[in-house]
Amino acid sequence: MDVKPLAMRDDDEGELTFAVTEDPSGQIVIDFGKPVHWIAMPKQQAQELAMLILRRACDRVIKVDIDD
Length: 68
Known about the structure:
The protein is of the alpha+beta class. The radius of gyration is 15 Å and the shape is flat. The chain is about 20% helix and about 10% strand. The model has no long low-confidence stretch (mean pLDDT about 80). It has a two-stranded antiparallel sheet. It has one domain.
């Protein structure tokens, strides 16, 4: 798959709003509010999204070491 820089993509629709929640059965839900084919973000934003999902998914504090 050839991934083009965002500035070179003509199918980028711009800003996307979403929510990370938990449904009554305990499943983590990422709701984009509309059909989404792809998303891209800077590494810092991806780290923040990952932490948001982990915070919602964990019942207690966890420590994660990620090797390079």
